[in-house]
């Protein structure tokens, strides 16, 4: 489950069955005509199957006593036609249901993925990645199961009604007696459906936790191995598996009990039918043919009841999956666009922070950023420095509009960023992080991620500016060399230069450098810094740095402490003052010399 979730972006509980149905109705409405067509075809298939008992009645009451072989052959011909039609209807119905299911799975995963892209960073910080993967894969598959189950429910329910009419038509007294047992079947279904749904919700929650643990462990496999924690992680994973075994067995046992109770009720119903049928045949109320037809229809009546009872487990599973998916789809994006946003095609690059206040938690006693005011001119290079946790990265996250300010405003080229179209605005900003992320495609594809329609010449030019060409031609397939997950085959400096090449190709108006060289060795840092100098040329640049030696040439240095701007000036101006900057600089200088006293 999520921790410290915001009111708008959190994982709601499953809720009651009525609430769940209310959530999943929109799913059905999107595919209503396909579902209606599939259900109607199945109903026609079952209706034709109900002809057989009536044929038996005719055979026993008319053909046998009168030796009417002409009528017998006519019935045989009709049955051949009927069952050929049943075969065709079954094929069409199964094809339509399967096609609808596949469409729903594809459309739902696409919809969930698209919605996830609209949610803020706060959501991803509080919701484990493995659980989202479980939602995308297993829960969407359960929605497909729900659609199939609802189709079967509709089909079997209609068959139940039709058989009921036929039973009352044959003999209403016997039908009334049989229907007195129906509430028992319903109570059996109702009780176990409620129990199984609750149990399966717990199973899905545990499955999500297992998925999250697995994803987390695999992503940190290098740390696991470096600390020789393979055995410990295996034990931890086993501990997460144990509870689900007990839960799944409980679901299985409940399912067995439900089927057993249903079988007992079925036998009881058959005995009632036989007992009262013999009596009514003896007193002449029904013919032997009518009794046989009645008994056959009771068997067909109990079949949908049994199917509906057995479907309670899949219905519960489907409702759980659908509920979890709808909870995600109903999560309201924290960052919203105005009705008619400004769509900037290019920016000059003037940035204004106007008395900005921000807090991650609305009930926090102290805001993360407080009364922050800053004016950055176009083409200016501004460095944000300060102790760890002071709020430097939060400032750039607000500029990127990963979060919205709690108070004040951020304006770019005089326009409040909240009035700009998100996609158009973010296309004007380039970001180079301390730990760049690369996709498991080729080098060319990773550079072109910033501009998918870029020509090969543009990609090579960006690579040359970012010093990527220095190592790419030594690769087995050059720019078409396939990288491992997150560039596992590259060094830190090579990955950083690829990220810079991506930003060069994007050619943004505003550039954010978040500790872009802090994790590199001296040689790699020199190559990366050279690439960064080319990238920053003519661009408004915000630099976040812990190592103050890397920002001495900035046009302006902003010192942030506890979310507040405490100093502002050039390196020389700040060193002439007694304050946070001078203290940090002298401390880092001592550490570089090995003097930790």
Short description:
This protein is 63% helix and 9% strand.
Summarize the structure in words.
With 597 residues, this protein is of the alpha/beta class. The protein has two domains: 17-329, ABC transporter transmembrane region fold (Up-down Bundle); 341-428 and 542-597, Rossmann fold, CATH 3.40.50.300. It is built from 20 helices and ten strands. It has a six-stranded mixed beta sheet with strand order 6-7-8-3-9-10, sandwiched between helices. Strands 2-1-4-5 form a four-stranded antiparallel beta sheet, covered by helices on one side. Helix 3 runs antiparallel to helix 4 and helix 6 (129-170) packs antiparallel against helix 11. The longest helix has 53 residues, at 230-282. The radius of gyration is 35 Å and the shape is elongated. The two termini are 45 Å apart.
Query: Which homologous superfamily in CATH is the superfamily of the largest domain?
Result: ABC transporter type 1, transmembrane domain
Poorly predicted runs: 1-15
Strand-pairing-aware structural class: alpha/beta
Tell me the strand percentage band: 5-15%
Question: What's the structural domain tally?
Answer: 2
Total strands: the figure is: 10
Radius of gyration: 35 Å
Q: Per the principal axes of the C-alpha atoms, what is the gross shape?
A: elongated
Task: Give the helices and strands as they follow along the chain.
Answer: HHHHHHHHHHHEEEHEEHEHHHHEHEEEHH
CATH class of the largest domain: Mainly Alpha
Chain-averaged pLDDT:
78
What's the end-to-end separation, in Å? 45 Å
Number of helices: 20
Q: Specify the helix fraction band.
A: 55-70%
């Amino acid at each position: 489950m999520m921790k410290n979730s915001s009111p708008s972006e959190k994982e709601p509980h499953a809720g009651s069955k009525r609430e769940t149905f209310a959530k999943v109705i929109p799913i059905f409405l999107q595919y209503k005509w396909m579902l209606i067509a599939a259900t109607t075809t199945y109903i026609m298939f079952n209706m034709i199957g109900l002809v057989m008992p009536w044929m038996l009645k005719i055979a026993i009451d008319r053909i046998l006593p009168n030796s009417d072989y002409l009528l017998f052959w006519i019935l045989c011909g009709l049955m051949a036609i009927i069952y050929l039609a049943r075969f065709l209807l079954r094929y069409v119905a199964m094809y339509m249901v399967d096609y609808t299911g596949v469409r729903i799975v594809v459309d739902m995963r696409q919809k969930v993925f698209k919605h996830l892209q609209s949610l803020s960073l706060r959501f991803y910080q509080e919701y484990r990645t493995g659980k989202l993967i479980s939602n995308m894969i297993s829960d969407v598959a359960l929605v497909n199961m729900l659609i199939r189950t609802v189709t079967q429910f509709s089909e079997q329910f209609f068959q139940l009604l039709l058989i009921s009419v036929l039973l009352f038509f044959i003999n209403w007294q016997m039908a009334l007696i049989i229907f007195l047992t129906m509430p028992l079947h319903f109570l059996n279904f109702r009780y176990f459906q409620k129990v199984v749904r609750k149990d399966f919700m717990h199973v899905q929650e545990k499955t999500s936790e297992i998925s999250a643990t697995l994803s987390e462990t695999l992503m940190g496999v290098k740390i696991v191995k470096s600390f020789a924690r393979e055995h410990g992680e295996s034990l931890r994973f086993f501990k997460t598996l144990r509870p689900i075994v007990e839960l799944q067995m409980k679901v299985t046992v409940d399912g067995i009990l439900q089927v057993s109770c249903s079988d007992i009720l079925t036998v009881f119903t058959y005995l009632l039918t036989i007992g009262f049928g013999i009596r009514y045949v003896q007193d002449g109320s029904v013919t032997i043919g009518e009794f046989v037809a009645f008994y056959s229809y009771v068997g067909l009546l109990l079949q949908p009841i049994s199917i509906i009872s057995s479907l309670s487990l899949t219905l519960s599973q489907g409702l759980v999956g659908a509920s979890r998916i709808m909870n995600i789809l109903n999560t309201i994006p924290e960052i919203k666009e105005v009705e008619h946003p400004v769509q900037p095609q290019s920016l000059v690059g003037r940035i204004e922070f106007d008395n900005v206040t921000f807090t991650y938690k609305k009930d926090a006693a102290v805001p993360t950023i407080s009364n922050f005011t800053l004016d950055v001119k176009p083409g200016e290079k501004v460095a944000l420095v300060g102790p760890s946790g002071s709020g430097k990265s939060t400032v750039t996250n607000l500029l990127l509009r990963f979060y919205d300010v709690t108070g004040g405003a951020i304006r770019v080229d005089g326009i409040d960023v909240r009035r700009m179209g998100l996609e158009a605005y973010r296309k004007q900003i380039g970001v180079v992080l301390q730990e760049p992320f690369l996709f498991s495609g080729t080098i060319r594809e990773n550079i072109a991620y910033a501009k998918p329609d870029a020509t090969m010449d543009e990609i090579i030019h960006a690579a040359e500016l970012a010093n990527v060409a220095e190592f790419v031609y030594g690769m087995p397939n050059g720019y078409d060399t396939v990288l491992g997950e997150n560039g596992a085959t590259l060094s830190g400096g090579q990955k950083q230069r690829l990220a810079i090449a991506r930003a060069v190709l994007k050619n943004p108006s505003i550039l954010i450098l978040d500790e872009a060289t802090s994790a590199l060795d001296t040689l790699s840092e020199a190559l990366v810094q050279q690439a960064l100098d080319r990238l920053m040329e003519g661009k408004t640049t915000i630099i976040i740095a812990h190592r103050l030696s890397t920002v001495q040439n900035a046009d302006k240095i902003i010192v942030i402490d506890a979310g507040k701007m405490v100093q502002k000036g050039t390196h020389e101006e700040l060193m002439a003052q007694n304050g946070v900057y001078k203290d940090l600089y002298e401390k880092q200088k001592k550490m570089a010399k090995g003097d930790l006293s």
